[in-house]
Design goal:
This protein has 121 residues and is mainly alpha-helical. Helices cover 54% and strands 9% of the residues. It contains 4 helices and 2 strands; from the N terminus they run H-E-E-H-H-H. It is elongated, with a radius of gyration of 18 Å. The chain starts with a helix and ends in a 13-residue tail after the last helix. Bound molecules: zinc ion. Residues 94, 96-97, 99, 114-115, 117-118 line the site of zinc ion (ZN).
Amino acid sequence: MDINKYERDLKEELKLLTEELKSLGQINPNNPNDWITKGNEETNADSDHSDPNDNADDQEEFGERNAITSDLEIRFNNVKKALQKIEGGIYGKCEVCEELIEEERLNANPAAPTCIKHMNS
Ligand SMILES: [Zn+2]
């Protein structure tokens, strides 16, 4: 397993993800693993009760951006975790069964936290 190659790819991806996330929101000052989408003046709990015609477009647009931010945030945290594992010398082990993750899986996704068998768990 060529860890240096994965580390390079992961660092590159972390940089890109950070830039994308910065364009959509900002890091939560209280939690470096959490990103807050810009324009979140209303809480999600309120949006269910608001007038559907009131700022519907804004809400929809915010919802879309928020969904993208969430996806990127998951990816961002997986990449960060993978880099921490490289530092800790435990990179490439499945989080479920602790077997080595298949190289084909790591080539497709260097941040994969599990082997192919456990990828949906
Ligand atoms: Zn596994």
